[in-house]
Amino acid sequence: MERLYLYDTTLRDGQQTQGVQFSTPEKIRIAEMLDELGVDYIEGGWPGANPTDSAFFEAAPETRVTMTAFGMTKRAGVSAENDDVLAAVMNARTPAVCLVGKTHDFHVSTALGITLEENLDNISRSVAHMVAEGREALFDAEHFFDGWKANREYALECVHAALNAGARWVVLCDTNGGTLPVEIGDIVRDVIASGAPGDRLGIHTHNDTANAVAGSLAAVDAGVRQIQGTLNGLGERCGNANLVTLIPTLLLKEPYASTYETGVNPEALVNLTPISRQLDDILNRVPVKQAPFVGASAFAHKAGLHASAILKDPSTYEHVDPAVVGNERIIPMSNQAGQSNLRRRLEETGITVEKGNPALGEMLSEVKAREDRGYTYDSAQASFELLARKVLGQLPAFFEVDRYRVSIERRRNARGEVVTVSEAVVATIVDGQKILSVSESLDEAGNDQGPVNALWTALAKDLGKYQCQIDDMRLVDFKVRITQGGTEAVTRVIIDSEDGEGRRWSTVGVSANIVDASFEALVDAVTWRLMQVPPAQALAGE
Amino acid sequence: MERLYLYDTTLRDGQQTQGVQFSTPEKIRIAEMLDELGVDYIEGGWPGANPTDSAFFEAAPETRVTMTAFGMTKRAGVSAENDDVLAAVMNARTPAVCLVGKTHDFHVSTALGITLEENLDNISRSVAHMVAEGREALFDAEHFFDGWKANREYALECVHAALNAGARWVVLCDTNGGTLPVEIGDIVRDVIASGAPGDRLGIHTHNDTANAVAGSLAAVDAGVRQIQGTLNGLGERCGNANLVTLIPTLLLKEPYASTYETGVNPEALVNLTPISRQLDDILNRVPVKQAPFVGASAFAHKAGLHASAILKDPSTYEHVDPAVVGNERIIPMSNQAGQSNLRRRLEETGITVEKGNPALGEMLSEVKAREDRGYTYDSAQASFELLARKVLGQLPAFFEVDRYRVSIERRRNARGEVVTVSEAVVATIVDGQKILSVSESLDEAGNDQGPVNALWTALAKDLGKYQCQIDDMRLVDFKVRITQGGTEAVTRVIIDSEDGEGRRWSTVGVSANIVDASFEALVDAVTWRLMQVPPAQALAGE
Questions:
Q1: For B176, which of A319, A520, B23, B123 could close a Cys bridge (C-beta 3.0–4.6 Å)?
Q2: Contact B312 A404 (CB under 8 A)
Q3: Taking CB atoms and an 8 Å cutoff, what residues of chain B touch A514?
Q4: Dihedral sign (CA B270, B273, B278, B279)
């Protein structure tokens, strides 16, 4: 088996995606996900160019992965030792460093405005400096394929300059994303024929013609042994090669599965779908249903012909087993499959329902009707559990909400400063007694936290005999999406809550009114918490 | 130049997409779009299997495209003339008919439960019957690639049975989507070597490994002369080969551009982006930003290095000219952007700032400081423009907001029903005059639309002398996400607005309070609209 290395650039090229801006804690969480998956390198960002990137390297988690800082080859006219861009990259103190440099003559003259010789010198000296400082050096050969087509001799000289200076890897980059797979294969073969060893070459593709995965595979077929890519194909313009697609392709499909080994443990593939969706969660993006391997539709068999054959043998219409990549089969046409799916889901929440129980059909149509109105139960497990218990008659009526009122006012205070104040009044009924509670929404510094927070504070302030059960509860996340409920756009709110025992649960609310949707999710959150401890027991503990 | 035929199956395989169900008028509109684009065949559906498909063929528009009905080869034990499935397909009266049949021995025994000879006979007789009835016959060889790997002899026999019976085309289908491009190329070459002429072979791929486009190109390289695909890559599971990607690849990129001609007029490529978005409109889907060629991010240059080079020459970071496919270049503002990016961005909004003007530095640090607090200017172009004009002293003080108040109340009405009512009061000052306006937020059916809508209605109700300028303005989208502003979680709201002239613009607001954040974005939206017409001119037009 030959070793193939995976280099992830989600935190660097992935951050070039339009609309994506990771915070430092988000970068740390993504690095931990990549470590769990088993990639070989994490390119964490460009220290010095970006404050969050510098902060990430300072706080970077301990992982088995080789942490890599990204930067640029030195400028002409300055020594590598005195180049401030290189110095910032060195200061990140990562074991590996990846420097991007020009290899296309047109870019050397047009974008940099220096001579071809100066550029070669910049590559050599920058790489040599990193090596002298004890770093594993990578060289990203920018625009390599376009460069090779324009001036093959020069492009190859750049590659060899980096290799001769001690670069562990030279990564051939199709920066503009326009090179088709067959061309990539041909050009890689020429590079190897020129004396560059394949096990020191990498490939970096973009998806501008939807060929980023195919181009990466063509480069591996031609001899490279490192692939650069990103989770969910994030990246500049149309994105980079999608590692979430490449990894199962390399591990599960021939000729790759029996030719190469990677750092990814085949058993870790079950994390692939959850990891892909967690990233979408961090970005507050709707997961792409049609995504290969991990999309909700990737193993959905809608055609009647397909669905009936799948029942006989899943391999009739599936190229891999969905369970292997942590995904699941969906047969939307078959009510039977729906019910067995549902029973499995109920078992996960500790509810056992016999096969054939008519409550299953009722539950399924209730879930479907609500999903048509914009609800989603994929992530809001706690709301799903409440819905199921309600259909089964297992949901106690803990409390009732009589009414609520929230007001948000922006005005000038006595000192003439513009301030915003939110106030909420909630009237609940517990054991026939009306409880009225009111709350403002201020953080410790006296700043207003908005209407949802005000509502939560009022609701959680006095819930009569249940109060002791929710005292340790707090809201930890709040996600809002505008979605389609029937023909109207509605707001979907998902609230994540946590309690003192570290339990975390998610609930959902849907309405045209964002405050109403939030309130529904809040009430579910409290109700789910009350389900966990029977009231009598909670009271006995008082 | 060799002729390459494009066969669109958006209306048949595309309808297998999870969540997609076209109505007959929608099918007609899509057929007209395909005609405008210039594909050769439209597969309109399966008459008899689907009522909307039968209705579509009855009402199908007159096009230059060869309309094709889809069906299945006859069952064993019935003559082609007496097979009711074939009869329904014939009744659609299309000039061409495409019949799917098995070519994988395992499927013949497992899914059909008949002998291999019976299946060959079904293929021959069904195709011959269509030809005898004067139709152009196509045979979709289902699971051909898996079949070839399992039993090469038999798979090839099926192909030749269809060809010998008079099929104009035999389409090699990778039904499960698991065959990689290199394998597709090798197998197609073997089929041609067996005596099947390439100009009677087609390719049908799925995107289960993200290789549908690459697999189609590999088949063309190996000799097939028909490609089947769908608009926007719709289709079963992960979708079919995306014609919106394949068409510009074939027309603009080598070796295809100078080797093949298709029915698509190169000048019709400017319709590509609008057609792709119109289809999303019909499906009520958000267009995929990272889609090759047509996505909003396909020519967005976020990296500072890229943006500065683009200013010198767009070909430095673009593989094709966005205008050719009806798309446009975007240089978003972001944390990564430098001053050149900023100048370019300013020029797009009609603001010229000399290189070296200190206002650029001030603007950049203002943008960065705001992005640290949670703002994003990638998509909120209008808010970016206002911020720039403010730094340059070019932003008139149109109006001032003195205060606002919103209340949301949920209670029982006189009939005992639970209702929610939102009310907003906004006090603005125009030319020293205070204007107070109040509004509820009800849609036509009397349902509450929430606090943001109430605020918008109150703000847009009376803005004194500016009222005529915002009368035609409406909110078209509203996006919310919780993000990190410094150390605190804050809410970011992006609002898309539109006016009567079809202009569309986006603004952003950030606050711990979602209503405050929304209000900030609303005020920006109104202010940007007021910038477009100088007040004097607007007043003169009254």
A1: A319
A2: no
A3: 450-452, 480, 514
A4: positive
Is residue B118 pLDDT above 80, yes or no?
yes
Residue B404 · residue B426 · CB < 8 Å: yes
A237·B512 Cβ contact <8 A: no
Residue A346 has pLDDT above 80, yes or no: yes
The answer as to whether B184 is a domain residue is yes
Q: How many CB atoms are closer than 10 A to CB B11?
A: 28
B241 & B364 share domain? no
Q: For residues A87 and A200, state if they share a domain.
A: yes
Residues B385, B413 within the same domain: no
**pLDDT interval class at A296 (50, 70, 90):** confident
Same domain? A370 vs A511? no
How much is the pLDDT for A488?
63
Domain that holds residue A378: 304-392
Instruction: Indicate if A362 and A432 belong to the same structural domain.
Output: no
Q: What is the mean pLDDT of residues A265-284?
A: 90
Do A301 and B404 make contact, defined as CB atoms within 8 angstroms?
A: no
Average pLDDT over residues A136-153: 98
Q: Is the peptide bond before B255 cis (omega within 30 degrees of 0)?
A: yes
The ipTM of this complex is 0.75
Using CB atoms, which residue from A245, A441, A482 is nearest to B478?
A482
Query: Which residue in A290, A409, A491 is closest to B239 by CB distance?
Result: A290
Q: Assess whether B375 and B434 both reside in one domain.
A: no
- Dist CA A7 CA A214 (whole Å): 17
Q: Say yes or no: A323 and A445 in one domain.
A: no
- Whether residue B217 and residue A181 make contact (CB cut-off 8 A), yes or no, is yes
| Predicted pLDDT of residue A173 | 98
* B184, B208, B281, B434, best to mutate vs chain A, most A CBs in 10 Å: B208
pLDDT score of A534: 56
Residue B507 resides in a domain = yes
DSSP string, A50-85: -HHHHHHHHHPPP-SSEEEEEEEPPPTTS-GGG-HH
Predicted local confidence at residue A540, as pLDDT? 47
* Total of domains in chain A: 3
Instruction: Tell me which H or E stretch contains B431.
Output: none
Are residues A170 and A70 located together in one domain of the fold?
Answer: yes
Q: What is the CATH number of the domain that holds A60?
A: 3.20.20.70
Which H/E stretch holds residue A93?
none
Measure in Å the smallest separation between the Cα of B368 and chain A Cα atoms. 10
pLDDT value of residue B504: 86
Question: B283 lies in a domain?
Answer: no
Q: Is A464 exposed, middle or buried (0-12, 13-18, 19+ CB in 10 A)?
A: middle
Q: What is the CATH number of the domain that holds A493?
A: 3.30.160.270
Instruction: For B448-500, give the DSSP string.
Output: B--HHHHHHHHHHH--GGGHHHHTT-EEEEEEEEEEEETTEEEEEEEEEEE-T
> Which tops the pLDDT comparison, A539 or A184?
A184
- Residue A144's φ and ψ, nearest 5 degrees, are -60, -45
Residue B281 lies in a domain: no
Segment B357-388, tens digit of pLDDT: 889 888 888 887 887 788 888 778 899 999 99
Higher-confidence residue of B23 and A259: namely A259
Q: Chain B closest CA to A141's CA: distance in Å?
A: 14
- Chain B residues with CB under 8 Å of A319 CB are 176-178, 208-209
